[in-house]
Amino acid sequence: MWAAFYAYCARRELHFQRCEQCACWRHPPRPMCPLCHSDRWEWFAATGRGRIHSWTIVHQAFHPAFAPDVPYAILLGEMEEGVRLVARLSKKDEPNVRLALDLPLQVEFEPVSNEIALPTFSIARAGDAAPGKAVPSEPEA
Fold first, then answer.
1. Nearest to residue 108, comparing CAs of 9, 7, 1, 2?
2. Which of 103, 110, 119, 127 is most buried, taking the most CB atoms under 10 A from its CB?
3. What are phi and psi of 3, to 5 degrees?
4. Any bridge partners for residue 80, and if so which?
């Protein structure tokens, strides 16, 4: 299930699972709805908009690839769909923003390789993102 989430990210698209029975959004991906226990779900495009719920500043890299970037901020975003997403603050915003609870966020994607892009948060500006829409349960190859 995580493979599908990251396949969408590689296409610069944010998707979350949504239960077909009760319409509950969920993240992280899992096979069963936490509310109604249905195993019927599909992937839906998310707005990519949210607000800061919490954050931490990383001062020690947990992988050598991130060592040049410390210190950096990891945010917990409360997304419009009601799920929470953990992602790094965009590198372009790091030197220019003072973090605060409820600050509006917009998801962007940072390419890590030709096949991988990770979601990041930037501070939202007016007019960011389009509303979510239904998509197939798995990304096309």
1. 9
2. 119
3. -60, -40
4. none
User: In the structure encoding, which two tokens stand for residue 129, read together?
Assistant: 């993102």
Give yes or no for a contact between 58 and 89, defined as CB atoms under 8 angstroms apart.
no
Each residue's pLDDT expressed in tens, for the chain with a length of 141 residues: 899 999 999 999 999 999 999 999 999 999 999 999 999 999 999 999 999 999 999 999 989 988 999 999 999 999 999 999 999 999 989 888 899 999 999 999 999 999 999 999 999 865 544 433 333 334 444
Do residues 88 and 72 make contact, with C-beta atoms less than 8 angstroms apart? Answer: yes
Q: What tokens does 126 get?
A: 């007016």
Residues 6+ apart with CB under 8 A from 42: 17, 18, 20, 134, 135, 136, 137
Q: Tokens in use for 118? A: 């990770």
Query: Which residues have a Cβ under 8 Å from the Cβ of 116 and sit 6 or more positions away?
Result: 6, 9, 10
**Which distant-in-sequence residues (6+ apart) come within 8 Å of 61 by Cβ?**
67, 69, 70
d(CA 119, CA 12): 8
- SS3 for 92? coil
